[in-house]
Amino acid sequence: MNQNSSSTVQFYNGEQLPLELHKVRVVQKLHLVPVERRLEAIGEAGYNTFQLSTYDVFLDMLTDSGVNAMSDNQIAAMFRADDAYAGSQSFGRLAEAVKEVFGKEYLLPVHQGRAAENIISRAFVKPGDVVPMNYHFTTTHAHIDLNGGTIEELVADEALELTSINPFKGNMDIAKLRDCIKRNGVDKIPFIRMEASTNLIGGQPFSIANLREVRSVCDEYGIMLVLDASLIGENAYFIKKREEEFQNSTCGEILLAMCDLADLVYFSARKVSSSRGGGICSNNKEIINKMQHLVPLFEGFLTYGGISVREIEAMAVGLRETTDETVISQSPSFIEYFIGEMVRLGIPCVTPAGGLGAHIDAGSFLPHIPQSEYPAGALAAAFFIASGVRGMERGTLSSVRDKDGNDILADVELLRLAFPRRVFTLSQVRYVADRMKWLYDNRDLIGGLEFVEEPPVLRFFMGRLRAKSDWPQKLAAKFRQDFGESL
Ligand code: F0G
């Protein structure tokens, strides 16, 4: 390729900066509402950023899910969609793309990633089963629980050390995996799950060397290997950058090498392909047969799976774009820049920079707030007041309670600022860094939160909280004092 394929370039003054290798042709007007309104809005939202209206949000860094920018080719493809309940040509084109990008012959379409988890868990998890994984994702955990299984997270201890130079914090600890199999017995293990760009520990990748080791344990014991490929593009990009064996491989070749090691690959197209939908794929017809009957029951007929045909067309194009390093490097290069700024400003965050978002270490940012008062949730609310930027709590608030009703404290308390692909500009990212610095300098003003309404499942989505004192008002007053009439 005779063009720049990475989104970071060297400027004449020596700086390495991320560069937008795309042009913006459709735009959406944003609102930066005054701090008084931001204070009011977060109160109305029960101090839960999921409950905010985007009218009040300036930069929406809640997630990259379903909000990556679509390409011109994706939008164009949507116009040729073949509307048919059964046998749609659009589905045929998607199945071709899956074969090309993931190397898998058979595809079951589902409406999003968690729907794949529902079907996989129903088909394979029985009460008393144990699913070893590098680390859980919230919806995965919930579906395995729902089917009577439990999970064991087997990343190396170092993966939970927030600042590190370990390039592959998403790796499975093979000694822990062997111990887990011995303790529980092979019969209790329906599959081993590896998650690409491990979301909840900061978007951290695993290496192919590690995946090969997991594969050989699977072969030794005859256990199925399941790959959650929702963030596989970023993981492939990090392998190219960080794993010597693959430095001359294309992202597309790395994607194929990763999928080749797994018996079953599932994905959320909301993340991997800048569209909607999801899928489960495999080369093993027996594995597919165990799940196939569940798709019409929960999702829709086998050639649309609850996804509109227009989205299916966008998915096919988006999957192919995931192999393009220019596309896939955009978000990681912006995250790397932002994390570099955080480190320079002395703000605690997860290093090395990962995929999907930047993660601020709320535990170190707010050591005066105990985990029982949800420091990461408090930081998300405080940052919204300070900036109008919406992030997401990834800590104890996103956890669950034990049988006695006590919070199971999260391993790490993080505020995630997602970087959807090709959505934000560098000056917007600099604004985020600037407001974070202001908040860090005023962190003593931030206090804890407590639940007012707490749903029993996935409580972080709909839960409502209140501040344990009038700290939000004090924080907004200090902001007004420091910034005067400016927003
Ligand atoms: N697996 C991983 C690794 C994910 O990050 C997600 C979603 C899912 C499965 C579920 O997919 O949302 O399409 O049902 N992650 C989003 C996030 C929600 O914001 O991190 P879904």
How would you sum up this structure in a few lines?
This protein is an alpha/beta fold and 487 residues long. It contains 20 helices and 14 strands.
Structure description:
There is one protein chain. With 487 residues, this protein is α/β, with parallel strands linked by helices. The protein has two domains: 8-64 and 327-483, Alpha-Beta Complex (Aspartate Aminotransferase, domain 1); 72-323, Aspartate Aminotransferase, domain 2 (3-Layer(aba) Sandwich). The protein is built from 20 helices and 14 strands. The protein has helices at 35-44, 72-78, 89-102, 113-124, 138-146, 174-184, 208-221, 232-242, 251-260, 269-272, 285-292, 294-298, 309-321, 325-328, 330-345, 362-365, 375-387, 426-441, 459-462, 471-483; strands at residues 8-10, 16-18, 106-110, 130-133, 150-153, 191-195, 224-228, 264-268, 278-282, 357-361, 392-394, 414-418, 449-453, 464-467. The strands form five sheets. A five-stranded mixed beta sheet has the order 3-9-8-7-6, with helices on both faces. α2 runs antiparallel to α13, α15 packs parallel to α18 (426-441) and α17 (375-387) crosses α18. The longest helix is centred in the last third of the chain and has 16 residues, at 330-345. It is globular. The termini are far apart. The model has no long low-confidence stretch (mean pLDDT 96). The structure holds ligand F0G. Ligand F0G binds next to α4 and α10.
